[in-house]
Specification:
Helix 1 runs antiparallel to helix 2 and helix 5 packs across helix 7. This protein has 169 residues and is an all-alpha fold. 77% of the residues lie in helices and 0% in strands. The longest helix is centred in the middle third of the chain and has 28 residues. The radius of gyration is 17 Å and the shape is elongated.
Length: 169
């Protein structure tokens, strides 16, 4: 099994958790990004110090590039950390695929939210509703108020795309 596949198998549940937390609270726990980065660095280290150093350098470039977007309010700080952490565990060619898949998923998410602004009706409060119903009502409220996108969903989708597109040997 390749180290990239092992990394994505470790990172996939963490990315899914980050996406869920982002939808529910618009916050991505730092521990998730740290765990993904540590797993990625450890697995890249199995390929040698040069591979690990390349991944760290590439993650730093991605982090600094996306930090500029975060400073302008176009991307959240947690999203920047999550993308950079995921980058840490990928070989350079897969980083580009991950970023492109994440951007495309973000575009689909953005279009869904634009459509949602026109389609979603005013949510009703129902005491004792299930957690899913409350999250849907909260998202409807956020959509109507033009709140920020839960971009960790797009990041997780980019990671899942990469996971399922790796050829199995």
């Amino acid at each position: 099994m390749s180290t990239t596949l092992m990394f994505l198998l470790v990172a996939a549940p963490l990315l899914a958790y980050a996406a869920l937390r982002d939808v529910m609270t618009r916050l991505i726990p730092d521990g998730v990004s740290l765990a993904i980065a540590a797993a990625g660095f450890s697995l890249r280290l199995f390929e040698g110090w040069a591979a690990a150093a390349t991944s760290v350098g590439l993650a730093a470039v991605v982090f600094c590039s996306l930090l500029l977007l975060a400073m302008r309010g176009l991307l959240g700080g947690g999203d920047v950390k999550l993308i950079a952490a995921t980058t840490m565990g990928l070989p350079p060619p897969d980083v580009w695929t991950f970023i492109v898949a994440t951007v495309l998923a973000g575009g689909i998410l953005g279009v869904a939210y634009l459509i949602g602004r026109r389609v979603v009706s005013r949510p009703r409060r129902t005491p004792g509703a299930s957690i899913l119903r409350r999250v849907v009502a909260l998202e409807a409220w956020r959509v109507r108020r033009r709140g920020p996108l839960p971009y960790a969903v797009a990041i997780a989708a980019g990671g899942m795309f990469l996971l399922f597109s790796i050829p199995r040997a």
